[in-house]
Write a structure and sequence with these properties.
The protein is α/β, with parallel strands linked by helices. The chain folds into two domains: about 190 residues, 2-enoyl-CoA Hydratase, Chain A, domain 1 (Alpha-Beta Complex), CATH 3.90.226; about 45 residues, Lyase 2-enoyl-coa Hydratase, Chain  A, domain 2 (Orthogonal Bundle), CATH 1.10.12. Helix content is about 45%, strand content about 15%. The chain has a six-stranded mixed β-sheet, with helices on both faces. Strands 5-7-8 form a three-stranded mixed β-sheet. Strand 1 and strand 2 form a beta hairpin. The longest helix is centred in the middle third of the chain and has 16 residues. The chain is globular, with a radius of gyration of 19 Å.
C-alpha cells in the first residue's frame, strides 16, 4: 500500500511503525492524511503486525487539524469529523493489537486526541499537549471530550480544555494523561522497546483487554463481570495460554506466538 502523507514499516519483531510524515507543516492533519492513517490501521491484520507504534516525523508529533488546507471557512465544521476524524478514532479503538504513541515536540488539537487514543503514550521531555480549540471558538474534538476526563480526571480535563494552555510532558505524566516521560534522546529507543515487548506478548489477550477497557465506562459492575467471563473464555482457548501454562509449570519463560 502506497502512502503520500504517512509511512508504515513492519519490523522483524512484528512492530508496525506508523509515522505522520508532513514535517513541513508539523504533521498537520488533512483529510487525505487522516484517511491514510485509518487505512494503514485497518490493514494491520494483513501485515502480521502484533503491535502498532505511532509517531511523528521531524520536530513534532502533530500540530492538529490542517486549517490552511480548508479553502476558507466551511459552513459545517463538524462535517470533517464525521467523514475523516471520527472513523479514524473508531479504527484505533477497534484495532486488535496494542497501540503505543511516541510523542515528540508539539502534540496539539486533534493530533493530541490521536496520540491519547493510544493504549500507552510515551513522551519526550520537550513534548507538550495542547487542546487549543477554545482559542478559536471551537470545542475539543476527535474524541478529546471523552478521552481527557477519563485519563486526567474531570477537573484537570476541564482546565486543559477551557484554558487552552500547554501541558508539558512532565506535567502530563503527573496527571496520568500519559504513561511516562523520558528524555528526548531516549524517546525512540524506549518507544521501540515498549512496542516490541507488546508485540512479543499474547496478542489475542491484548485485543480482548483493549475492548474491555474501552467498554468499561459504559458497563455496570455486573455487566463488566459478564464481559470479563466471556473474554476470559476466549483467551483461555488460545495456544498462547496453553503454552504459557506449560512453561510456567516447567519453570520456563513463556513464548507467545499471538495465536
Amino acid at each position: 500500500m502506497d502512502f503520500q502523507h504517512i509511512t508504515l514499516e513492519l519490523s522483524p519483531a512484528a512492530v508496525a511503525t506508523l509515522t505522520l510524515n508532513r514535517p513541513d507543516s508539523l504533521n498537520a492533519l488533512n483529510a487525505a492524511m487522516l484517511d491514510e492513517i485509518r487505512a494503514a490501521i485497518e490493514s494491520l491484520p494483513k501485515t502480521g503486525a502484533r503491535a502498532l507504534l505511532l509517531t511523528g516525523a521531524g520536530r513534532g508529533f502533530s500540530s492538529g487539524a490542517d486549517l490552511a488546507s480548508g479553502g476558507g471557512l466551511p459552513d459545517d465544521v463538524g462535517a470533517a469529523l464525521e467523514a475523516h476524524f471520527n472513523p479514524l478514532i473508531e479504527a484505533m479503538a477497534q484495532a486488535d493489537v496494542p497501540v503505543v504513541a511516541a510523542v515528540n515536540g508539539p502534540c496539539a488539537g486533534a493530533g493530541c486526541s490521536l496520540a491519547l487514543a493510544a493504549d500507552l503514550v510515551i513522551a519526550g521531555r520537550s513534548a507538550y499537549f495542547l487542546q487549543a480549540f477554545i482559542n478559536i471558538g471551537l470545542i475539543p474534538d476527535a474524541g478529546a471530550t471523552w478521552l481527557l476526563p477519563r485519563l486526567a480526571g474531570r477537573a484537570r480535563a476541564m482546565e486543559m480544555m477551557m484554558l487552552g494552555e500547554r501541558v508539558p510532558a512532565e506535567q502530563a505524566a503527573g496527571w496520568g494523561l500519559i504513561s511516562r516521560m523520558v528524555e528526548d534522546w531516549d524517546l525512540e529507543a524506549e518507544a521501540v522497546a515498549l512496542a516490541t515487548r507488546l508485540a512479543q506478548g499474547p496478542t489475542i489477550a491484548y485485543g480482548l483487554l483493549r475492548r474491555l477497557a474501552r467498554d468499561s465506562e459504559q458497563l455496570s459492575l455486573t455487566d463488566a463481570l459478564v464481559a470479563e467471563r466471556l473474554a476470559q473464555r476466549e483467551a483461555g482457548r488460545t495456544m498462547d495460554f496453553r503454552s504459557a501454562v506449560m512453561a510456567f509449570l516447567q519453570k520456563q519463560k513463556p513464548t507467545f506466538d499471538g495465536r
